[in-house]
Amino acid sequence: MVIVVTGDVGVGKTTVCRKLIVIAKNRGYACGGILTDKAPDKGIIIQDIRSGKTERLASVGDIYDGPRTPKYHFNPEGIEFGIRAIESAISADILVVDEIGHLESRGEGFTRVLELIEAGGVRNGVIVIRSELLAAFMVWLPTALVFSTTIDNREQLPDEICSVLLKGLEVKA
Question: Could you check whether the bond before residue 170 is cis, i.e. omega within 30 degrees of 0?
Fold first, then answer.
């Protein structure tokens, strides 16, 4: 089962994923993949959910020899770090990928996870996609359940997602 967590920038999609991971782990399920956070300098930090290790993914000031968007310069080492975290978490009960975005729409970044999903290599995944990009990625995720994050629902949304996702895991266990 693949679940898409969507919403506008800044509504709490990463917060929803963090809470979902806590709930799943408290129920004995293994989680892996990546989370992204804003750095103090407005860049992006990527975290491997399993190890807790972090790497610089993107910067607004530092120039990296990697992909670029109008706002960010992406660190190739950060992208590779994320890809390794995703690939090592394929066997986890729940794979979380926060987030798929502009790079992936160009075939860069974490496109590998979309290929794995399409090939049936992801049993249970939670993929974060901004609402503005959702339609473009749903061709890769035609059977995914979509949960929209808002300021008003972000506190209860992790419980709702977990009830659907973990029910599927319990049936297979």
Answer: no
- Residue 168: CATH number of its domain: 3.40.50.300
Beta bridge partner(s), residue 5: 128, 147
Rounded distance between C-alpha atoms, residue 15 and residue 26, angstroms: 17
> What pLDDT was estimated at residue 170?
58
Number of domains in the chain: 1
pLDDT digit string, tens, across residues 128-147: 999 999 999 998 898 999 99
**How much of the chain is helix, strand and coil, in % rounded to 5?**
35, 25, 40
Residue 144: closest CA among 113, 173, 170, 171? 113
Q: Do the domain assignments include residue 60?
A: no
- Confirm whether 162 is domain-assigned: yes
pTM over 0.85: yes
pLDDT tens sequence across 56-107: 999 998 889 999 999 999 999 999 999 999 999 998 999 999 999 999 999 9
Q: Which domain holds residue 162?
A: 2-53+83-172
Nearest-angstrom CA–CA distance, 39 and 160: 29
| Mean pLDDT, residues 34-58 taken together | 96
In a domain, 126, yes or no: yes
Q: Is residue 99 part of a domain?
A: yes
